[in-house]
Amino acid sequence: MTKNVSLLGSTGSIGKQTLQVVRELGLRVSALTANTQVDLMERQVREFTPRLAVMMDADSADCLRQRISDLPVEVLSGADGLLAAATMEEADTVVTAVVGSVGLRPTLAAIERKKRIALANKETLVCAGELVMGAADRYGAEIVPVDSEHSAIFQSLQGCRDRGEIKRLILTCSGGPFFGKQYEELETIRPADALKHPNWSMGAKITIDSATLMNKGLEIIEAMRLYRLPAEQVTAVIHRQSVVHSLVEYRDGAMIAQLGTPDMKLPIRYAFTWPYRAPSPDKPLDLLRCGELTFHQPDMTAFPCLRIARECAVVGGTSCAIMNAANEEAVMAFLREEIGFNDIPRQVERALSRVEVKYTPTLEDILEADRLAREVVRNR
Ligand code: MG
Questions:
Q1: What is the pLDDT of residues 216-242, one digit of tens each?
Q2: Ligand 1 centroid distance, CA of 7 (Å)
């Protein structure tokens, strides 16, 4: 069980919900990190009194340092600061709630120090799943997923003594705000339309990924890496109600699922308390009021990102890192209204056709693939 937390990405959606759970469970906090939100970081530092606070942005770090000069809190900035936060001596658990591949190095560093990783940064496993899981094995670090689907699978696997008994993992997918639309209709989608998610409230990047279904593509790869299964044993179904959070199908035909309200605090709490469960102050799912549960096949023609991710999952090597980095850049360009909604998969495919894939890559190969893919999208 977790006692002391280092939280990477404390001002984002998962970060804020993590601190609610930290408060509720009475955990200690040794480090907090954020990008530029100085106001919120100051409030968090005053409440949770970590030993270290990190702002990725150097000016924001200077500003925070001045504001909390009355407190015995060290303030650092940039990638070195993030690394320091991930390796705090007193932290037994590192929550990786940063967005994007910036989470990779600090996650590996925390694994080397045998921390429990409460993994909320799916890009890390997508880009470097084999490296990360290999390191976790070598150092004996526990990786507990915070992503709701992967937590549901993790929970559904608790009674499983032999991974060979798993037939399939079935990830559920809300379908996003454009479920049922045709490819042509998506051409004119604006960021404001895409930022309305039907069930979950999340950060901007993941909300766009949910609208393109890239999020489910990333999650299929994340599940393959976490549970060491080939692409053909991991599938996704559209489940509009977000009540069934994912399922494991066993070889005898049994399907074990986790159900609940769409609330990230449950997977966050479980990542801290596993293998135990703590009482929750939140309202549980009301089966009598949750209505009909439906399941549909995802439409890979209207949502090519899911098809592209499946293809990369099969190809492996650095292809997933290329896809992920190109997607991050394309989503940011879409949010700035520089490209259209359907240009997101177009840019990802362009990067995949231009950057050479390396098989059994090193960390350097992965970071280089990430850099080259971003360059392709920036120079579109
Ligand atoms: Mg998810």
A1: 999 999 999 999 999 999 999 999 999
A2: 19
Ligand 1 mean position to 73 CA, how many Å?
A: 33
Q: Which domain holds residue 42?
A: 4-145
Ligand 1 ion: residues within 5 Å (CB): 147-149
Find out whether 77 and 54 touch, Cβ atoms under 8 Å. Answer: yes
The number of beta carbons lying within 10 Å of the beta carbon of residue 230 is 10
**Cα–ligand 1 centroid distance for 153 (angstroms):** 11
**Alpha carbon of 96 to ligand 1 centroid (Å):** 14
Q: Which of 145, 167, 189 is the last residue of a domain?
A: 145
Query: What's the CA-to-centroid distance between 219 and ligand 1, angstroms?
Result: 7
- The count of domains in the chain is 2
CA of 61 to the centre of ligand 1 (A): 31
Alpha-carbon span 192 to 338, nearest angstrom: 14
Residues 118 and 174 in one domain: no
For the whole prediction, is pTM greater than 0.85? yes
* Pair (122, 21) in one structural domain: yes
Last residue of a domain, one of 124, 145, 166: 145
Place of tokens 């009482």: 279
Peptide bond into 275 cis (omega under 30): yes
pLDDT tens for 2-37 read: 999 999 999 999 999 999 999 999 999 999 999 999
